[in-house]
Design goal:
By secondary structure, chain A is mainly alpha-helical. Chain A is about 70% helix and about 0% strand. Among the domains of chain B are: about 160 residues, Rossmann fold (3-Layer(aba) Sandwich); about 70 residues, 2-Layer Sandwich (Alpha-Beta Plaits). Chain B has 12 helices and 14 strands. The two termini of chain B are about 40 Å apart. Classes of the chains: A mainly alpha (about 270), B alpha/beta (about 325). The interface between A and B is large, with 37 and 54 residues. The structure holds adenosine-5'-triphosphate and magnesium ion (MG). Adenosine-5'-triphosphate (ATP) binds next to strand 2 and helix 1 of chain B.
Chain lengths: ~270, ~325
Amino acid sequence: MNNRQFAPTERLTARSRSALYWALADAVVVAKRQIRQIPRVPDELITAMLQPIIIVLLFRYLFGGAINVPGTSYINYLMAGAFVQSAVFASANTGVGVANDLKRGLIDRFRSLPMAPSAVLTGRIFADLLRNIFVILVTWAIGLLVGFQPAGTFLAWIAASALVLLVSLVFSWLSALVGLLIPSPEAVAQAGIIWLLPFIFASSAFVPVSTMPSWLRAFSEHQPVSLMMDAVRGLLLNQPASSALWQALVWCGGMLLVLIPLDMWVYGRRTAR
Amino acid sequence: MTKVPAILAEGVCKSYGKTHALAGLDLVVEAGSVLGALGPNGAGKTTAVRILTTLLKPDSGRVEVAGLDVVTQAAAVRERIGLAGQYAAVDELLTGYENLTLFRQLSHLSRGVAKRRARDLLERFDLVEAAGRLVKTYSGGMRRRLDLAASLILAPSILFLDEPTTGLDLRGRLTMWALIQDLARSGTTIFLTTQYLEEADHLAQQIVVIDEGRVIATGTADALKAQVGGERLELTLAPGSALDVAVEALGPYRSGEVQVDTAKRHLGVPVTHGAEHLAAIVRDLDAAQITLTDLALRRPTLDDVFLTLTGHTATEAKEVAETEERQPATRRSQ
Ligand SMILES: Nc1ncnc2c1ncn2[C@@H]1O[C@H](COP(=O)(O)OP(=O)(O)OP(=O)(O)O)[C@@H](O)[C@H]1O
Ligand SMILES: [Mg+2]
């Protein structure tokens, strides 16, 4: 043990930079923390990757024969739903992570530091976005393996992937809000997904909405997740879906506009327990 | 010019629904001093720390840290404080060293100085060997030590420690005490909460006793102990030794009424400077042919302080608080 004194000596926080600089720099630090943890809890990434694989295989081979879609093969129809669905489920991890930080008191510590308050959420969500890129690539791979044949241009496929990533961003912010509001990480893992199920399944993901009873169809046709899927499908299969595309973009933009400030506001007043 | 106190709280209230966690807390801590906040479970210590460290907003009252308002100037306050909360707040999935790096970077500290500091802290807290391991493999005490190291990395001018030694073994506790004393010597203002009078006594110049969200007593450890009545000598006599003879022999040393328990052959004697007189007391009892089976000099505990100040013990306090919640009219006054 040494006897060096720990003096509150120099003002170590010397570097004066703009608030924006720190908001970005701190977010990068938090994102690095998150990314470093990925290989340390491999089951989380593996689950996120298994999700699209199972869904694609299951629907392609189990239900695929029984479902007819006009104008294209079932796997071609299915992929847009698989992309959006796995992005949404992968995003549910954001909330579990936030709830864990809250429970462990880490959020308390972060909030007592002179760091940019926004960075705890933006950094984590940025890292989750990187991980979701990986999930999207896995979805592409499994789709192509079982006979997915996208139409149109390479640029349109990139645009479709970018839209899926945008959807995952929206749902990460939503999930973070759930994580901030529900105290137990276990409950967040459950609740974060359960209420999404109607949006995922009562949608155009697996069967065309035209096959549904009219009361369900009214919901399925217009709910945002369906619109997002339709927009992605339009881009992947080179179908004209411009109205779905802009509606999906408006939904994403609108939800971000509401969710980001709301998340920040709630973050600013949550403490452990 | 009057000196700005490091910590100032005036009439701070905070309620959770019907629970009044703080009910008009008043505090002043001079810059460079150590304040020990003593109180039983549920007294409001953690709530006070959270408000002082900008984590919670008070319902009412004025709170200033380093002369800055904790609500309106929270960001500036955070640059001047360090916090080790009641429960270790470290990242399980990072190594010890990575944790310190994370908190250093998020505190915007310059690299060179802070890196050296991180190494020093790991050494001091005996974590050098464990520093490369994931925290999830640490024991509870190791986590606690890492947590304290993390709160010191900023070299804050005002440090908040919420029950810093709860859960530490003897060695960890002594390390922590030495560190707190070092920090205090070098001018850090320290606000520390504890459930042990002994700890507050050892570390703090000024002690406040908190109960039911209010400061019920304040002063130096000696002043509080004087209120409680100093030490007690507890004796148990062997069969055959006369109790009244023993009481007689103890006459010159007692500072209050001697309590006699005939059935247990037990004597409770309030004394002052008991340790100095212990040898003489034993000699006198020996001369009076008294044989002892047990002899103890007991220093006042938190329970004694509470008993004296509030009329109920620390462990009872919680239940009393809850009963009063339902029957507001029955509040005991001291
Ligand atoms: N988030 C919360 N929601 C509801 N009640 C709370 C909350 N936090 C604290 N309380 C209540 O406020 C009171 C004071 O709690 P606090 O944690 O400040 O006590 P403490 O002195 O730190 O106790 P301990 O020694 O157990 O740590 C308690 O009655 C507690 O139940
Ligand atoms: Mg507490």
